[in-house]
Amino acid sequence: MSLEKLKKSVRNIPDFPIEGIQFKDVTTLFKSAENLCEMTDILKNIYFEKGITKVVGIESRGFIMGPILAVELSAGFVPMRKPGKLPAEVFEEKYEKEYGTDAIQIHQDALCADDVVLIHDDLLATGGTMLAAYNLVKRIGVKKVYINFLIELEDLNGHELFPKDIEIETLIKF
Fold it and tell me: With bands split at pLDDT 50, 70 and 90, how would you rate the model's confidence at 174?
């Protein structure tokens, strides 16, 4: 299988969730066992020797591949959620996204200084969500951070928000 085949598996939904947005639906990637295995193998090969100890998945679509990657990398999984969903003490970060504002939270005790963290989400658009996630992980203080997306919308330049020394990998680019 090729990345081009994976790219063709992504469904485009015009005007969702609001008019003017071309929503990239990753559920069509996940419904094929072949696609799911291919993405898992590619991502495992990228991160296998980087010493990842925790995979942080961003709500909600980061909860699909995040745990799969954690298992494949023999790492723990940490959910990063919308406000009010985590039961213990949290850190919170507010952020702007392409069609509004939002916030995400992580348990204060989810990570430690020795962790090597892979933050995973399905899509990089303007970068607001992942930048908030990155800021939360850095606030806790970890040894190293990697960032991964399944899809990147290159014209929105979300990559430019991040420090140049952060390794950011994307499987599919539109």
Answer: very high
